Amino acid sequence: MRPVFTLRHSGNNMLTPDTAGGVFQNLVDGTWIASSSGATFENRNPANHDDLIGRFQESTPVDAERAIEAAARAYESWRLVPAPKRAELLFRVAQLIAERKEQFARDMTREMGKVLEETRGDVQEAIDMTFFMAGEGRRMYGQTVPSELRDKFAMSVRQPLGVCGIITPWNFPMAIPSWKIIPALVCGNTVVFKPSSLTPLSAVNFVKVLEEAGVPPGVVNMVTGGPDVGTVLCTHDAIKVVSFTGSTTVGRLVNQNAAPGFKKVHLEMGGKNIVMVMDDAQLELAVEGCVWGGFGTTGQRCTAASRVVVHERVYDQFLAEFTRRVKALRVGDGSNDAVQMGPSISEAQLAKVMQYVEIGKQEGARLVTGGNRLTSGDYARGWFHEPTIFADVTPQMRIAREEIFGPVVAVLRCGSLDEAIAIGNDVTYGLSASIYTRDVNRAFTAMRDLYTGIFYVNAPTIGAEVHLPFGGTKATGNGHREAGIAALDVFSEWKSIYVDFSGKLQRAQIDTE
Ligand code: NAD
Q1: Of 163, 189, 237, 409, whose Cβ has the fewest other Cβ atoms within 10 Å?
Q2: 508 CA to middle of ligand 1, Å?
Q3: Alpha-carbon distance 86 to 82, whole Å?
């Protein structure tokens, strides 16, 4: 028996039901069914925890195994559907999501709190990714190369692997599942999808569209639940690829659990991203970028600009304007159009933010604005926190090194580009970085020397597009990328094929001289 690595969670932020939400089921082998556990968990609105969105299946390892077995059976026929035909279904999926964009965005805001503008963007990413990947159904290019022997033909083709285990976080509840499931399907794999228990409604919305578009039974299965379900997706013999996005701590467990079975493991994990503001930067632009990069999605983006390093010549000016803008941010329920920043996703996430604010204070960083939970009036029913800036942060402080995943930005000081780059690289993560400068030499130097998977010039650390690779270095990733055609490398394997049409034995790799 293989050891299974687990993480023990303390606390439980689920609340007692007091309003009636519907009960949502798992999708296994084309049928919506309840978990064998008979248990459900609640999904509540983080802006108002009196608002019960629904109950979802608290699935067991047995449920996950059944889903995997269904996916393994479906794989035998799905892999033989020509890729352009698979893609036709996916084009339909993209169209259906586009038709329902507004409802899906509203559901998403209700279950995870980010403002409507952003949840519309999340759904749009799923649309964009699905259209882009469906196009791959008619490409998926391999190589043809000349053979070193006469009358021999040499080529490579992409082949699917089998059943993919898809494990996703809550901060991009439709975009991230689409980034994994759609390329897996176009390549000819089948999937078992376990969404975050904090955003299962968006997962249901997405899977229902796949079903409605005509994706055959068993090709896409969804099992909601916790780490036990995730562990089965990492360890079951029939799973060939595990694609995980989430924290580095859980990603490490996923990696450890999948290793003995030699599964292909694709990990997208945490970040501690930096914006570098040089003394020649267009300051208003840099401030605007840092407000958006730091506080968009309430700082709960893997690419959030949680560190800003500013050249000492413009430090005070930048900080004054940045603080003024952040103080003016309107915090509240994301479904209200006037709101600019929503709540934290959960009580546990809010507690983590508050803990880091204490750490920042104890470390001697200067709290410039924010620092408190919001509890008055309507705030009392949600997980709200003030947008918070710490200034005079030094690179060794924990608030400058650890992922907080909340509305807290650390501002550091530097004396040169070299120093900014050194600070930028001196963390365990390597997802995204950016520079504000008008000097092309500085821009290119930074672009080359920041060891991250994504880099921006004169823009914040967020804003990736679906047709370029997405992912990070060091503790952010394990060398794979999603999005772009890089995603095909996760969900397919190369097969090199040689066709000898000489009618005789031709021997390669033999020294005939
Ligand atoms: P998380 O690691 O807590 O959970 C991610 C998923 O893993 C969830 O579905 C969860 O139920 C599941 N899970 C938990 N324990 C498991 C186990 N033992 N085995 C298998 N699966 C298990 O992360 P989260 O809180 O949902 O998301 C926030 C994190 O995700 C942040 O660290 C953020 O940086 C990261 N993230 C990274 C990217 C990226 O592309 N690099 C994108 C978005 C979010």
Answers
A1: 237
A2: 48
A3: 6
Q: How far apart are CA 108 and CA 122, in angstroms?
A: 9
Pocket test for ligand 1, best of 122, 250, 302, 404 (most atoms within 8 A of CB): 250
Catalytic residue among 164, 187, 234, 302: 302
Give the CA distances from residue 176 to residues 1, 10, 170, 485, in Å, rounded to whole numbers and listed in that order. Answer: 33, 27, 9, 16
pTM of the model: 0.95
302 is catalytic: yes
pLDDT tens profile 303-346? 999 999 999 999 999 999 999 999 999 999 999 999 999 999 99
Mutation choice for ligand 1 from 167, 273, 347, CB with most ligand atoms inside 8 A: 167
Distance from residue 463's CA to the centre of ligand 1 (Å) = 20
Tell me if 223 sits within 8 A of 56, measured CB to CB: no
Ligand 1 centroid distance, CA of 304 (Å): 15
Amino acid at 157: V
Tokens of 414: 């530097």
Distance CA 317, CA 66 (A): 60
- 98 Cβ partners below 8 Å, 6+ apart? 127
pLDDT tens sequence across 436-464: 999 999 999 999 999 999 999 999 999 99
Who contacts 297 (Cβ-Cβ below 8 Å, separation ≥6)?
A: 114, 118, 171, 304
Give catalytic status of residue 358 as yes or no. no
